[in-house]
Design a protein that fits this description.
Metallo-beta-lactamase, Chain A; eight-stranded mixed β-sheet; binds zinc ion; about 300 residues; six-stranded mixed β-sheet; alpha+beta; 2 domains
Length: about 300
């Protein structure tokens, strides 16, 4: 109730404009993609905002959403299409004295919405110092080329096992010939335009399993392959918060594993879940489905049992 309508209402209180468009992607092509495949859709964006940097009258609207993630951590809700009840993709923005960090970048064509959301949080895209890419999928790197083209100082960090796919050296593992052949020509054209942008992406840092970033009081990398080879989760011990990316999802209020249809190595993904089971956790935030805070560790242990018996 609150999430869809009230959050989207915030946007109209903060009219903004964006002069940053994804390069070389044409609306007619994106429309064709949207029509064909739910992965490629025009979103409507709504936001979750830090409460102490916004006008008073907005506090009442957004306070619950802000409280979900923690101090100076906001999710950016990107809706699949106008009128959607739930956001389809949820990148996360964190900011501290080291500047802002964006975790994932939404699906292609969502640059305007991301721009608005960041501005409504009280920051600018130019405040972003780094983008951490949790994995290669198009709904996570959809605006990476556009962001780094517009702001070349932004660093891009990703796990080595997914870097060749993010930079276009290898074709993204889920973009199989079969899947591409099922799309109409206009959709394929749009995708090829997108693929052509990937070589412009420069990776500044190869991140490794177990690494602890000196960001936000400490942010640990947990390599969780299965959904893709270089998939990572990020753990923030200070908040007891796990950014699970696509290793976990929230569906109908319940924490569940990665989507099997988009997880080429489900056995590996289930093995990866073991790496999350012993974390002191109060909150799990999923790119698809958002927050889960009902004893997440117990639920992850239960999930492992369920998935290993399947
Ligand atoms: Zn995803």
């Amino acid at each position: 109730m609150f999430k869809g309508h009230a959050s989207r209402g915030v946007i109209s209180l903060f009219p903004t404009s964006s002069n940053v468009a994804p390069p070389h992607l044409h609306t007619k092509h994106l429309s064709a993609l949207n029509a064909h495949w739910c992965f490629f859709i025009f979103p409507v964006c709504s936001i979750i905002i830090r409460r102490n940097i916004i006008p008073k009258e907005v506090h009442r609207i957004i306070i619950r959403e802000y409280m979900k993630l923690g101090q100076r951590i906001a999710s950016i809700e990107l809706f699949a299409q106008p009128g959607s009840a739930e956001p389809a993709y949820q990148p996360v923005l964190l900011w501290d004295e080291n500047g802002a960090t964006l975790v994932d970048t939404g699906n292609i064509g969502q640059m305007d919405q991301i721009t608005k959301a960041v501005q409504e949080i009280g920051l600018q895209l130019s405040d972003i110092r780094r983008i951490i890419v949790t994995h290669q999928d198009i709904d996570h790197i959809g605006n990476l080329a556009a962001l780094t083209a517009a702001y070349p100082d932004i660093e891009v960090w990703a796990h080595a096992d997914d870097i060749p796919y993010i930079t276009g050296e290898k074709r993204m593992i889920k973009m199989t010939d079969e899947r591409l052949s099922q799309m109409p020509e206009a959709a394929r054209t749009a995708l090829h335009s997108f693929f052509n942008l990937l070589p412009s992406i420069r990776i500044n840092r190869e991140i490794k399993d177990g690494e602890m970033f000196e960001l936000h009081g400490g942010m640990r990398v947990i390599h969780t392959p299965g959904h893709t080879p270089g998939h990572i989760c990020l753990y923030l011990p200070q908040e007891k918060l796990l950014l699970a990316a696509d290793e976990l999802r929230v569906v109908d209020g319940e924490l569940v594993g990665p989507a099997e249809a988009f997880t080429p190595d489900m056995n590996e993904a289930v093995r990866s879940l073991h790496k999350l089971a012993d974390l002191p956790l109060e909150k799990v935030f999923c790119y698809h489905g958002g927050l889960y805070d009902h004893e997440p560790s117990a639920r992850i242990a239960e999930l492992i049992r369920i998935l290993e018996q399947a």
